Amino acid sequence: MAKTFAYKAKDRSGQLLSGTIVAENQAAVATFIREKGYFITQIKEQKSKKSLIASINNLKPVKLKDLAVVCWQFSTMINAGMSLITALNTIIEQTDHPKLKDAFKDVLKKVQEGESLSHAMSDHPKIFPNLMINMIEAGEVGGVLDEVLARLATHYEKQYKMNEKVKSAMTYPAVVLTMAALAVAFILTFVLPTFMKMFEGMKTELPLPTKILILLSNFMQNYWPVLLLLVVAIILGLVYLYKIPKYRGHVDSLSLRLPVFGILIKKIAIARFSRTFGTLLRGGVPIITALEVVKKTTDSIPIVNALTTAQISIREGLGLSTPLGSSNIFTPLVIQMVAVGEETGELDKMLDKIADFYESEVDDSVNRLNSLLEPILIGVLGVIIGAIVISVALPMFDVITTVHM
After folding, report:
1. Are 104 and 88 a contacting pair, CB within 8 Å?
2. CA distance linking residue 294 with residue 255, whole number of Å
3. Is the Cβ–Cβ distance between 324 and 336 less than 8 Å?
4. Are 214 and 206 contacting, i.e. CB atoms less than 8 angstroms apart?
5. Do domains 55-156 and 163-405 have the same CATH topology?
6. Residue 30: which of 17, 42, 18, 19 has the closest Cα?
């Protein structure tokens, strides 16, 4: 089992160096340090101590940004002529993400035992995506691992930036709607009951809006645990149903037809498909395998079905553009550019151009959506609060009218 060793050494100028290395034993550490031309002064095994903070950090997911940084580091070291073992040791020493560090420790151990890098990484599917594993395998076969890693870094950087733009666009309306719901719940539960005592002393018939508001207030006060459980049950039920491919396919198809949001969802799906597929083809992955990897990385069932049909078409000797065109998901621009790419033998370049275009379109759509949603949400919030205020004020107007008559 691989262990972590702390070492101290001196270089040829006498400068003291220190660091940590993952290896099987002290002899392997000593060999690694001597290969660098350093003089060893101390090697000591580090005992692992798991603190509460370390346990919490270990729950953090591996983000696309983390993968991009690792791929850039890995590519730079391989391109500089470092051995695979040395590069892996350096990545383990430099990375701060607990899950990545542990995964790379296991990868290093298996590589030292004679396994290929891609095969060792495939044992950690929750850490290293299929795209990364297949690309690295193609890079190992073609002897261009550094180039493949650089492409992966660029791919993950672009994917991360696009995801962040989409998240930022969805965060604002989610926060506003949540605050609106909490404000309404607070008014109905704590503010309105003080007015209800006043309404009880009035001899006039309460208007219908006021009666409805009182009913809602009574329900919130007496049955809020039931309401909370109902909301949680609905959310969990929807999540469970979405995991079932049959229902998920219906939801995905419906989401593509939504006004405004449907167009944005389609652009995001096309951009991700084009970027991933183009990256795989440029990395030397066969087209059938590339389509299979894209199917595993996409979240849209309609696109998965379209790619399955495309795989069958390619196996039968037909092109890619025709089955994609019959799916009613990909736009005419995508179909035409894929067809041109097939004819010219530059499908990977065409896919990159498609990805660049639709990533730019997503950026513009997100900005327009933010500009559109802001006044709409403010208007909706104003209507809700206004309706509550009017419902409370109506009985008072009736009393004033009655007094003056």
Report:
1. yes
2. 20
3. no
4. yes
5. yes
6. 42
Percentage of residues of the chain with pLDDT beyond 70 = 92
Provide the pLDDT for residue 398: 63
Token duo for residue 322: 């025709």
Looking at residue 337, its pLDDT comes to 92
Note the pTM of the prediction, 2 decimals.
0.69
What does the alpha-carbon distance between residue 139 and residue 131 come to, in Å, rounded to a whole number? Answer: 12
Q: What is the pLDDT of residue 354?
A: 92
Q: What is 55-156's CATH number?
A: 1.20.81.30
Domain ranges of the chain: 3-49, 55-156, 163-405
Q: What is the average pLDDT score of the chain?
A: 82
In this structure, what token pair is assigned to residue 386? 């206004």
For 32-49, b/e burial (b = at least 16 CB within 10 A) is bbeeeebeeeebeeeeee
Which residues neighbour 67 within 8 Å (Cβ) at sequence distance 6 or greater? 128, 129, 132, 152, 156
As given in the structure block, the two tokens for residue 36 are 């660098």
35-39, 91-95, 134-138: least confident range: 35-39
